[in-house]
Amino acid sequence: MSGRLAGEVVVVTGGARGIGAAVAEVAEREGARVAVIDVSPGGRGFAVQADITEAEQVEAAVSAVVAELGPVTVLVNNAGRNASFDPVGMSEAEWDAVFAIDLKAAWLMARAVLPGMKAAGRGSIVNIASLHARMTSRGMFPYAAAKSGLVGLTRSLALETGPFGVRVNAVSPGWTATRLVEEYLAAHPDPGERARIEGLHPMGRIGTPEEIAEVVCFLASGAAAFVTGAEWAVDGGMSARFA
């Protein structure tokens, strides 16, 4: 599969670290010209610092990428945040902030790149959702709602853009060894928490950002030319368990 993204211009949001950084690395390895858009400075390839919950900043960031690298052919909507709120105590401002980054930003980014993709008659968008879109746990309100919305957005965009040669898919990771997850496990009062979580997976371990990135880049590539409107679970089989 070497060179599967040769000639592509790939934009990764939230690509300064974690899964996004791994996607940028794999895409670059596979021949793509890569741009990272993140609120934090830095990242692989052409880095643009922007808040993608703001429409004007999205348009400016995409324009900067196009000027530097050329028209965007692949968008990976990776930027997001975890959320843990009480459904009664949560304020409207907190709700809006969660949905702004976990759902609205994906639409704003898609809106900015789709005219170019439609004009070219080709393109791919991959949205990073979560297993919480279909199964969740207490203490993750309203993250599951936002990620469910992102999967719905994926399906809707796939139907709207398919006639123009644009594919839209979602990847739903399970437990992945990102910095946030490692910090959670290191700070957990129960030293057996890591073993408990690993035991939830039929494969006996959690995933790596690189493993998620490989699936994302496959879906973005021509090897997945007949895949659109799909949600792929990349979770080591955890969602196959009954309990």
TrEMBL record:
NAD listed as a keyword: yes
Report the Gene3D superfamilies cross-referenced here. Answer: NAD(P)-binding Rossmann-like Domain (3.40.50.720)
* Similarity comment text for this entry: Belongs to the short-chain dehydrogenases/reductases (SDR) family.
Q: Which CDD domains match?
A: SDR_c
Could you tell me the keywords of this UniProt record?
NAD, Oxidoreductase
Statement: the UniProt record of this protein carries the keyword Oxidoreductase: yes
- Annotated ranges, domain Ketoreductase: 8-178
Q: Which SUPFAM superfamilies match?
A: NAD(P)-binding Rossmann-fold domains
Entries under Pfam families matching the protein:
adh_short_C2
Name of the protein in question: SDR family oxidoreductase
